[in-house]
Write a structure and sequence with these properties.
Layout lengths: L1 H24 L8 E6 L7 E4 L5 E4 L3 E4 L5 H13 L8 E7 L4 E6 L5 E4 L6 H7 L7 E8 L17 E5 H6 L14 E6 L2 E6 L5 E4 L6 H7 L13 E4 L9 E4 L11 E4 L5
Parallel strand pairs: 6-10, 11-15
Antiparallel strand pairs: 1-2, 1-5, 3-4, 6-7, 8-9, 8-10, 11-12, 13-14, 13-15
């Protein structure tokens, strides 16, 4: 049994390594990327080469080579073909990204470190959020990914007509929906919306406004406010729900602890009768 487990573990490791190599090979080279080129048995040719703004750079023996717009795998093939044309017999060439500089994604909204980040290899949505320091306590349940298009230089905005994907943050973080952990593209903007607020007033330890999620209950909202004070009458807690679009008067609802809170609700805990 231990031998079988070892074989299975090794097989999984090899598959993971193969997948990672394939993903890296599909990366599209761009200006300002730094490549590491290795030519087997020709150490003098190897080294680090910065791709210039026109997508090319100078390589020994063959001069200017165009790398921009090609995948790592395709560029390896081109370099091998050029070196085989009158220089070496069946040269063995490998190319890797030393520094990712040409492709970027933007992370905005309720994250700890919003900004632009280099798109490295097969970066996914959850990896980009991690690079931005993860979400703040004020983040809503929803993440919007706006496809910025090839070579985008600035962050896109939700609703500007570009392709968008709306993703449930809770499902993403729990791994419940693996298909929502998108593989990112150059120019993508990740926007984490701010959570809507509810108000907890009366006999609670810290009255005020608090961000809520789509499944926040009255009990959870009370917990956010520090809980009910010894003088609070939890059994007489009520919800004051505002009218929508200013067309309906506010309504008052006797609250159950399991009731789901809606944005704009005011939870009022009255004082106990003695």
């Amino acid at each position: 049994m231990p031998r079988l487990l070892s074989i299975l573990a090794l097989s999984l490791l090899l598959l993971t390594a193969r997948f990672s190599a394939q993903s890296a090979g599909d990366y599209v080279i761009g200006p300002q990327d730094v490549l590491t080129v290795t030519v087997f048995d020709q150490a003098d040719l190897g080294g680090k080469y910065a791709v210039e703004l026109d997508g090319s750079f100078t390589f020994p023996l063959i001069g200017r080579v165009k790398a921009g717009g090609m995948t790592i795998r395709d560029f390896e093939g081109q370099l091998k073909s050029r070196l085989a044309d009158g220089f070496f017999k069946n040269p063995q060439v490998t190319v890797a990204i030393e520094q990712y500089r040409s492709q970027r994604v933007f992370v905005t909204g309720e994250v700890r470190n919003p900004g632009s980040y280099a798109l490295t290899g097969d970066m996914t949505l959850i990896e980009a959020l991690a690079k931005a320091g993860s979400t703040t306590p004020n983040a809503s349940d929803e993440v919007v990914v706006v496809r910025g298009g090839k070579g985008a230089e600035q962050a896109a905005a939700p609703g500007d007509g570009r392709e968008t994907r709306r993703i449930n943050l809770k499902n993403l973080q729990s791994g419940a929906a693996a298909s929502e952990n998108l593989a990112l593209r150059d120019g993508d903007t990740i926007f984490v919306a701010k959570a809507e607020l509810t108000y907890v007033l009366g006999q609670v330890k810290n009255p005020g406004s608090y961000p809520i999620r789509t499944d926040t209950t009255v009990l959870q909202a009370l917990s956010l406010a520090g809980g009910v004070t010894p003088t609070g009458a939890m059994n007489r807690t009520r919800i004051i729900r505002p009218g929508r679009d200013g067309k309906v008067d506010p309504t008052e609802i006797k609250a159950k602890l399991t009731d789901i809170v809606q944005p704009g609700d005011t939870i009022m805990v009255p004082e106990r009768f003695f």
